[in-house]
Amino acid sequence: MSEKKPILQMRNIAKRFGQFYALKDVSLSIYPGEIHALMGENGAGKSTLMKILAGAYTATSGEIVLDGQPYSINGPKDALRAGITLIYQEINLAPNLTVAENIFLGSELTRNGMVNRRQMEEETQQVLNRLAARFKANATVSSLTIAEQQQVEIARALHRNSRVLVMDEPTAALSSRETDRLFALVKQLRDEGMAIIYISHRMAEIYELSDRVSVLRDGQYIGSLMRDNLSSSELVRMMVGRPLNDLFNKDRTIEKGQTVLECQHLGDGNKVLEASLMVRAGEIVGLSGLVGAGRSELAQLIFGARPRTRGELLLRGNVVQFSSPRDAIDAGIGMLTENRKEQGLFLEMAVHDNIVMATIERDSHFHVLDEGRNRAISSTAIKSLNIRVPHSQVTVGGLSGGNQQKCLISRWTAIHPSLLILDEPTRGVDVGAKSEIYRMMTDMARKGVAILMISSELPEIVGMSDRVYVMRAGEIAGELADEAITQENIMALATGATQSASQVA
Ligand SMILES: Nc1ncnc2c1ncn2[C@@H]1O[C@H](COP(=O)(O)OP(=O)(O)OP(=O)(O)O)[C@@H](O)[C@H]1O
Ligand SMILES: [Mg+2]
User: Fold this and answer.
1) Taking a C-beta distance cutoff of 8 angstroms, is the pair 113, 157 a contact?
2) DSSP string spanning 343-373?
């Protein structure tokens, strides 16, 4: 690879937002036919660097060199012309148009002054065939899954003959099968000579895909490792600036108190057929299962965010009826939702207001807002979870993904819940922030909070849980405790692969 010429070089790139330098002096070379992973803690500047490449931001200083020639990218059109495509985590398609219409958007083919739909669909279909896509060029985008919509974005890049494809945390919303398909596709494109820049926090993906990994920290380029000398402890040290010993730091000595939550035969007649489980004070209970098994829906049932058609919910032994999340919050339940953009955060509001929102909702019965107390709550939260914000009035939308997640968690710790439901608490979160979130969970358990954690990351379930329930097709397929909590046992229950997985009551 070293004798190849880089297709793209970023030289001494800096980017300033107000007084703050998100990127200080970053230089990076990208070669054709490589998967170049970009890693770094939340807020390190990865997405900012990529947005500069895609023309969404203009660099404050620095130079971009394309095929050996200086190239200025002053807007998305320049990036397109340079053959650079960025696939954002949030899909960027027009949902009501067809696949072909999306791919030709802005450059529609015409014939005798009319849009030539037939030819656009044919050309699109050819690209889709190359990707072995299972949907048609005339399908409406809104009818496709997230994974398929991602394929449309990739098809669009291929159709434009992009030479550099940037993917920013592309697997966050994919199931494991969809992830496998994406990886096969990414490798195929690499083998065809495309340069791929791949951003992810998941070490396993980095190992599987990357030919080279570069690390950013605090807006600076730290270094790169080639595939052959990848080591996760070295990567962590580069990202965090210090070694992280035990990521989970599980405290097995925490005493379990009384039962806080009990679900008896809970169901919604749709995604959750029947589920019974319980969580005690001081206990961290994992809820595992494949994507689509009904885990998030079960959490929504408990939280009053989804109508229940059967079963009962008991809080400290008393039957409760929640007709809305508001009732659940009043009863001392907090819930971190899976999708922070859609359900959780108010991106245009300040960090401070996002953090105290649940407290305000709970306390507004009294019709007094204690602004001083709210400020104290949010600044304590910002400090204790190490949220990186210039000041608490900055809007949440301007924070990096992992810091947004920490804000959401602070919102729920601020209400001092007796039960905290966490749906994918570390999705899109870097290792340093992960260890802070795990420490926060352990602290809360120590204070007697009952925690129910949904996670698709098996190491996290195994590392943090006292007990684990595994869901399959809307039902609890089994329960595991102590030594029986292994990735193998969980997968066996989740897939129904074997009946012999040890079930511990
Ligand atoms: N539009 C903006 N206005 C102000 N600050 C911004 C803006 N965009 C990014 N930042 C800041 O720049 C820094 C880098 O953010 P960036 O999104 O590039 O991080 P990241 O490495 O992609 O993190 P993550 O892994 O969490 O996605 C952060 O401190 C962020 O708050
Ligand atoms: Mg990012």
Assistant:
1) no
2) II--TTSBHHHHHHHHHHHHHGGG----HHH
- Residues whose CB is less than 8 angstroms from the CB of residue 87 and which lie 6 or more positions away in sequence, other chains included: 150, 153, 154, 157, 165, 166, 167, 168, 170
* Cα→Cα distances 214→226, 227, 244, 315, Å: 9, 11, 19, 48
- Please list, in sequence order, all residues whose beta carbon lies within 8 angstroms of the beta carbon of residue 241, skipping any fewer than 6 positions away: 217
Sheet holding 450-454, edge to edge: 333-336, 419-423, 450-454, 284-289, 467-472, 475-481
Give the number of other CB atoms < 10 A from CB of residue 30: 22
pLDDT computed for residue 276 by the predictor: 97
Q: Which ligand is nearest to the CA of 218?
A: 1
Phi and psi at residue 490, to the nearest 5°: -65, -45
Please check whether residue 210 is in contact with residue 186, taking contact to mean a CB–CB distance below 8 angstroms. no
Atom of ligand 1 nearest to the CA of 15: 12
Pick the residue whose CA is nearest to atom 31 on ligand 1.
399
* 67 or 114: which leads in pLDDT: 67
Which residue ranges have their beta carbon within 6 Å of ligand 1? 17, 22, 40, 42-48, 388, 398-402, 430
Q: How many CB atoms lie within 10 A of CB 405?
A: 27
- Determine the Cα–Cα distance for residues 162 and 156; give it in Å rounded to an integer: 9
Which residue has the CA at smallest separation from atom 7 of ligand 1? 398
Instruction: Check if the beta carbon of residue 40 is closer than 8 Å to that of residue 169.
Output: no
pLDDT tens figures, 205-243: 999 999 999 999 989 999 999 999 888 888 888 988 766
Q: Residue 457 in 3-state DSSP? A: coil
pLDDT at 358: 66
Q: Which of 98, 193, 200 is nearest to 139 (CA)?
A: 98
Give the rounded percent of residues in the chain with a pLDDT score beyond 90. Answer: 56
Pocket test for ligand 1, best of 24, 26, 47, 205 (most atoms within 8 A of CB): 47
What's the alpha-carbon Rg for the chain, to the nearest Å? 24
- Please give the Cα distance from 33 to 36 (Å, whole number): 9
